[in-house]
Write a structure and sequence with these properties.
Blueprint (H helix, E strand, L loop, with lengths): L2 H19 L3 H5 L2 E8 L5 E3 L1 H13 L6 E13 L2 E11 L4 E11 L2 E11 L9
Parallel strand pairs: 1-6
Antiparallel strand pairs: 1-2, 3-4, 4-5, 5-6
Length: 130
């Protein structure tokens, strides 16, 4: 993978974390494709960026108000055709859960976007997650 592509993938999670920190669901959701397939930690299927934004707006106004998302990208693997598989472990601070996401990122000359995202809660203790 070219360094520019790697940087583009990592920039998605930095942007996501920045939107989360600001409680800005639109900014958080901007990294997702218009037609993203998004599975929440509760197994809910959200179809499209608008659904992701709406769901996170509710979370940012309620239980996740004034929290931060701390991402740790564990795997970036090109799979061909401009697609990249990404594994990211994120922790919600303070006192939030740790989640593990598997995402498919599409990249082309116009940038990178997440086209599929499956998120799950991690049950192993943090020290065993490495």
């Amino acid at each position: 993978m070219a360094d520019d592509d790697m940087d583009g993938v990592r920039a998605l999670w930095r942007s996501m974390a920045d939107g989360w920190r600001r409680g800005d669901a639109e900014a958080f959701g901007a990294v997702f494709d218009e037609d993203v397939e998004f599975v929440t930690v509760r197994g809910e299927e959200l179809r499209g960026r608008a659904a992701v934004v709406a769901g996170h707006a509710r979370l940012f106004a309620g239980p996740l108000r004034n929290t931060r998302l701390i991402p740790d990208i564990r795997l970036v693997r090109p799979v061909g055709g401009g697609l990249t598989l990404v594994h990211a472990v994120t922790t919600i601070e303070p006192d939030g859960p740790t989640t593990h996401a598997q995402a498919v990122v599409a990249g082309d000359g116009s940038g990178h976007r997440i086209i599929a995202f499956h998120n799950m809660t991690v049950t192993a203790p943090r020290e065993e997650q490495k």
